[in-house]
Design goal:
single chain; alpha/beta
């Protein structure tokens, strides 16, 4: 039986800063839908992407209330990706850099996100068909 291919993504940007994080989440979703196992190594500000304490907010600058400003919360998006991976029978292994988590105090990640270090990224890259690094500017 052919072994399923894996793709690895390294993310650096925090949520809400620019479109790179959103693009990465869309690429991860596309990979899962195509049946790839996906590894994610999040470091620097990206460790806040699956942080459970994110909260919805209104946008008074644009005159929108909470319901009108209904934008997706990144941690819910990651949870949906994990559910989609489970539903399709593929693996989504999301590792947050432990040192980056400590520095930023974002200890409460969604279920399924685990803590690791740069060696995890090395192992992911070695075992993957390809690795995409989405850096900060």
């Amino acid at each position: 039986m052919a072994e399923r291919k894996a793709l690895t993504f390294a993310l650096m940007d925090p949520p809400y800063e620019n479109e790179r994080t959103t693009t990465a989440l869309r690429l991860i979703e596309a990979a899962i839908r195509k049946g790839y196992d996906v590894n994610v190594f999040a470091y620097e500000g990206a460790v806040a992407v699956p942080f459970t304490k994110q909260a919805r907010h209104p946008n008074p600058v644009h005159g929108r209330d909470l319901e009108q400003e209904d934008h997706p919360l990144p941690h819910r998006w990651v949870a949906a990706l994990m559910e989609e991976a489970r539903r399709r029978g593929v693996k989504l292994d999301w590792v947050n850099c432990g040192l980056c988590v400590d520095e930023r105090g974002v200890f409460e990640a969604i279920e399924g996100v685990r803590r690791g270090g740069p060696a995890e990224f090395w192992k992911f890259a070695e075992s993957s068909a390809n690795t995409l690094v989405i850096p900060t500017k």
